[in-house]
Amino acid sequence: MSTDALRARASNRRDRPGGGRPKQNREAIFLFLPALLPVLLLSVYPLLRGIALGFTDARAGLNVDTNFIWFGNFGKLLHNDLFWDSFRIGLIWTLSVTILQFVAALGLALLLNTNLKFRGVARTLALIPWAMPPVVVAIMWRLLLHPTNGPVNEILQNLHLTDHPINFLGDFSTALPAVIVVGIWVGMPMTTVTLLAGLQGIDRSLYEAAAVDGASAWHQFWSITLPQLRTVIVAITSLDMIWNFNSFGLVYVLTAGGPGGKTMLPMLFAYNEAFRYGNFGMAAAMGDVMVVIIIVFLGFYLRNRLRSEA
Amino acid sequence: MLRKPIIALLAASALVTLAACGSGDASSGGSGSTEKVTLKFQSLAFQKTTVAATKKIVADWNAANPNIQVEYVQGSWDSVHDQLVTQFQGGTAPDIIHDESADITGFSNQGYLADLSQYLSQETKDAVPQGVWDTVSSDGKVFAAPTLLQSYVVFGNSALLKQAGVSTTGDALTWDQLQADAKKLTAGGKYGLGWGLKSPTATVLNLGMNFDAAFFEGTGRDAKAKIGDAELEVPKRINAMAYTDKSIDPTSLTQSGSDILPGFFGGKYAMIVGGNYAAQQIVEQAPKGFQWEVLPPLKGTSEKQAANPQTLSVPAEGKHIKESAQFIDYFMKADNLAAVGQGDWLIPTTQAARDAIEKATGGKNGWTQTLASGAEMTKAPFQSVENYPKWKDQIATPALQEFFANKIDLATLGKKLNDGWGQVNS
Amino acid sequence: MRTRPATRVAQYVAVCCYLVFLAFPLFWLISSSLKSPQEFASVTPSILPKHPDLSNFTDALEEQGLVRSMLNSLQISVATTVLVLIVSLPVAYALARFRSRLRPITNGWILVSQVFPVILIVIPLFMILRPLHLTNTIPGVVIVYMVWSMPFALWMLQGYVSAVPRELEEAASVDGASRVRTIVLIVMPLLRPGLIATAMFTFISAWNEFFFALVLLQDPDLKTLPLVLARFVGAEGQVQFGPLAAASVLATVPSLVFFAFLQRRLTSGLLSGAVKG
Lengths: 310, 426, 277
Description:
The complex is a heterotrimer of chains A (310), B (426) and C (277). In chain A, 73% of the residues lie in helices and 0% in strands.
């Protein structure tokens, strides 16, 4: 049955008056139900509490009173240069890692989608960063980037690209780039897998038709692959951006935010505020600020997505 | 049509929840009885030998005290702080908490620890010097028992030292002497000294006691920063050695204490300054035939260093404070402390335990000098200042890192340290 | 479409470059797990250990509860993945297909739960689980992981479901199939790659998760793998590299095996036939 005929039939259904809205609601609710209770209890409620904490002066301590101070924390935050510094570093980190990782992952996904020999092996190896526990990843990269006996420095010196060892993680100018590279390494498998799954779902016949029409590989990529992948791309890049912005475990072990605060990501900053200084209220306020800014930022990016799918 | 299944699902979830709540608390009750008491002891012992020694202490105690059984739970240094934060909030902290004074002080200020002064034996109290007790007391309350200390010592490559004619005997090593030696040993592409100052604040503040540096005046919330010549002495000297004499390997300044060991073994630098526990790693990792020694304790105007002992505490909300303190008392006995200290290459807080280690090791592997350096450890003013962790993280560490990378000068360092205190407390 | 030989070669080279970047660290790790402490501290690192020996592995396995923790992690991860998929697919379908009032709310929840610092949630979460007696239990951890993996699963599955053309479903329902049949017989097979990807991610998140496990699990018998691995890191940055490397190799292998198995199913050639037919 041709696509046009399908579409004709489909629109006939939709034109029927009162077509399906209340039924849709009920069906939707039914599908939501199994998850509802645990989600409300273990996710929504703690989240609301966490957000509300930002408006209090909650502190660690036995029998400490918690009072609502409304916008007190936010006022202080406005003047907190260190917080905004970490925010700036967070943005640089997020954009760098997300964009570079996406480009690299797209390339890899395209390659893994072709008929290469040993494709299975390649795909499995590509997932190695994912398979390693985070605590190990950071320590391992510290070893790899070690100035005295790390292989990266060894290789660079053997290739005569540098004459003295570089302390990637300890040097003021190389710390953030080095950490970004590790961030890309860590995130690539997920992005690659998601894009690969998306690529697999593209109808082969579209390519065949284009080839018959004489379109070049590049043209096919631009006008078929990318548009078909659009929803998946938007989904994965927005999620990557959020996660990267929130990342802290990796950088914590790699540099603890140093040297001199050059790799202090906002989440690390909030973590210190909550867990090292015990200022839960202030840390929650930082979280609230981050949520608002990210949502606004993403709001533009996702305008289409949130409205779409009619 | 869909209504029935929905109601059924809701009812089911409600039932499940109620069932979970209602399944009685089998563990409650019995806390008032005088029968067997089980204590949870979370130990952070890391080296294999220390874990074995600690477990033996627990086993010996359990054998001698059938009514008070101690359960050994393995924790890790890395995550103990976060664990304690959540455990204290949730009221589920272990009965005996292993931590270090710098960390546990914060929890004590927040009111979470029990006062042990009435439970510890006089023997224990007398065995530890007052200066060390000060690091675990506040407002007349003792919130932890100090077990093991660490000091900063200078390790030397024996072969290289001999070659350059650097003497390593004597009661103490003055900073001037250290500077001279480092200069002498810097030759032929090798440096005299390697110093892992990735986390510089602890080193600078602890060693600052060598020059009676205070850094702060007053205690608690009202403390004020005091950054003068004494406080800047240690950074000044390190910077001088690194950039004027060029006797410290600049790469090492951005590495951690453990990271500089390969360079030490490879002869890149003839001496290193590090925590005395590094001896453990040296023994394990040094290539065969590598000769090393511990130089005499560092001396400025005195040999004092700030004490940051490992601690054992009991939560204020603990159900068995008395019994927990009894176990802690047992742990503090000379033989037990000596066994654990030896395992971890750390210095016990009691002289009796130190003597035991000297006897057991014959003073080899630098133990004599190491144990000697433990005698001069005392409390530093910065240890009773509230908001110190924040100042350390946000002001001191970045500023010192910048100073040791030669990006700012001494005057700027002083200003940053001073003004930063006001910032942190605003 | 046949590719030119030159392009082929370029593709192989490119894949090799990628794989070196992604896989080299693991080989370094394996090599490290066979090195003695002396070799770690030597100034000249080598990719192959000079005197390989397995003592690191015995050390790692002696570490209390390593194997036990792997079993715990496996149990938790599998349970979480299965539950998440079962629960999320219907919801993702509803979100993608229906114009329900719940959609903006759900999407809002998804967004906020991903953005808000999870570390600040831990304490309220703990306080809720305690009266339910779910702290320090495996089911408790599974439910928490399930609830916190759902946002991602929903986000991704929504995307994959939307990519399936509506016409296919509508054609099926015109032919008389019920909604459920349509989903199971038509939509799900096309979603296979997406489901696989989501399953992989959920498994790995649960396998590697550290913070919730640290706070929720007290019993030594219940600890998960990341918690045990953390024990190889001591104070002041001292790390027992050899045993840690060995333990990490042991920790990484199951995940890789899982991936090797699943990656074959990432392919789906079904779509090309469906619309033409």
